[in-house]
Amino acid sequence: MKKVVIITGASRGFGELIAKKFQKENFQVIATMRNIDSSPSLKKLDNIDIKKLDVTVKSDIKNVIDFTIMKYNRIDVLINNAGYGAMGFLEEASEEEIKYQYDVNFFGLINCIKGVLPQMRKQKDGVIINISSIAGRVGLPFTSLYNSSKFAVEGLTECLHYELSLFGIDIKTVAPGSFRTGFHDSIIYTEKEKIDDLNEIRTKLKTGIKAGIKEGPPFPFNYGNNNNVSEFVYQCAIKKKKITNFVGRDTKIINFFIKIFGKGLFFKIIKRIWFSKILSGKKNND
Ligand SMILES: NC(=O)c1ccc[n+]([C@@H]2O[C@H](COP(=O)([O-])OP(=O)(O)OC[C@H]3O[C@@H](n4cnc5c(N)ncnc54)[C@H](OP(=O)(O)O)[C@@H]3O)[C@@H](O)[C@H]2O)c1
Questions:
Q1: What residues contact 185, with CB distance under 8 A and at least 6 apart?
Q2: Residues 185 and 210 sit within 8 Å (Cβ to Cβ)
Q3: CA 30 to CA 146: how far, in whole Å?
Q4: If residue 48 lies in a helix (H) or strand (E), which one and from where to where?
Q5: What are phi and psi of 195, to 5 degrees?
Q6: Distance CA 13, CA 184 (A)
Q7: Residue 73 gets which letter from DSSP?
Q8: d(CA 218, ligand 1 centre) in Å
């Protein structure tokens, strides 16, 4: 019997690649997405059920889990991949913008976990992989909401692993560095409560971020290969791994740097780059 994996946010980016990887490895894939017509390439493949799931809608989660149990009577792996990045000054973010970041990146993930647990406990087996980020390890500028939602995912996973181990269920995170998916084009600038004093710096910030995305991170932090993430997620699902698993050369460099020099020096360097370069409009090689 094929093993069954449920993946959230499979319309594009990592989620779509992860779905293809598991399909290739002979899993039955439940590829979920907000709009079921978003991925024509997944539609063409065998052993993939494409189901509608917005992680902020509890009835969508229930429908997908009911469908999976009814049709396959098992859930072996859950990949909580859906997510997006909010950026900007916290002061300018409305309550709605703040809550939505957490609804998608954190509460949606919790509800998916709660949804699969009864079946996994019954099986006394299962793996849950939460896609976190290097931003769940170290703070970065102007992304307090995104960063903190990923810190929350890391904290939740670390704590949950105790109780889930009682039932033979494994939970871990995969924490990527920077990769060129749809992520950067989907950034939401949280500015519904604009503050006039911040107009000038906000304009510079957004111009700097957009230019930085276009240019890509400077050497040696260049965007990684997206297929390495889907491959790594698969390895994390089938093998014993740590609770937090970083992927991407930039994550290795950052973690090494922090281990040797501490976060203080890291923050100083990041401030220097952002305040003297990005906010002043200079390019990487200036
Ligand atoms: N790319 C990176 O550099 C990077 C680095 C670290 C961590 N990550 C994490 O990796 C995960 C996947 O991101 P990606 O890089 O593949 O970005 P992406 O190409 O933008 O894909 C994001 C996926 O999440 C889905 N999504 C957004 N809101 C959703 C919701 N409410 N319900 C269900 N699905 C929703 C999107 O669906 P739609 O098509 O409907 O919008 C899309 O399928 C995210 O958790 C992200 O935080 C990415």
A1: 213
A2: no
A3: 27
A4: strand 48-52
A5: -115, 125
A6: 11
A7: S
A8: 23
Q: What token pair was written down for 163?
A: 């109780």
Distance 274 CA to ligand 1 centre (A): 25
Q: What pTM value is reported for the model?
A: 0.96
For residues 84 and 183, the answer to whether their CB atoms sit within 8 Å is yes
Residue in this structure with the two tokens 């090689």, named with its chain if needed:
285
Give dist(CA 35, CA 257) in Å, integer: 41
Q: What are phi and psi of 34, to 5 degrees?
A: -70, -40
Structure tokens at 240: 């014993």
Give the torsion sign (CA, 180, 33, 86, 200): positive
Which residue's C-alpha comes closest to atom 2 of ligand 1?
A: 179
Contact predicate 61/55, CB 8 Å: yes
% of the chain beyond a pLDDT of 70: 97
Q: For residue range 244-285, list pLDDT tens digits in order.
A: 999 999 999 999 999 999 999 999 999 998 887 667 766 555
Nearest to 191 by CA among 101, 97, 279, 105: 97
Q: Count the neighbouring beta carbons within 10 Å of the beta carbon of residue 44.
A: 8
Let me know: does 47 contact 27? Beta carbons within 8 Å: yes
Report which DSSP code applies to 125: -
Domain 4-194+222-256: assigned CATH number: 3.40.50.720
Which residues of the chain are modeled with pLDDT < 70?
Answer: 277-278, 281-286
Q: Determine the pLDDT at residue 243.
A: 98
With beta carbons less than 8 A apart as the criterion, state whether 23 and 47 touch. yes
| Nearest ligand 1 atom to alpha carbon 146 | 47
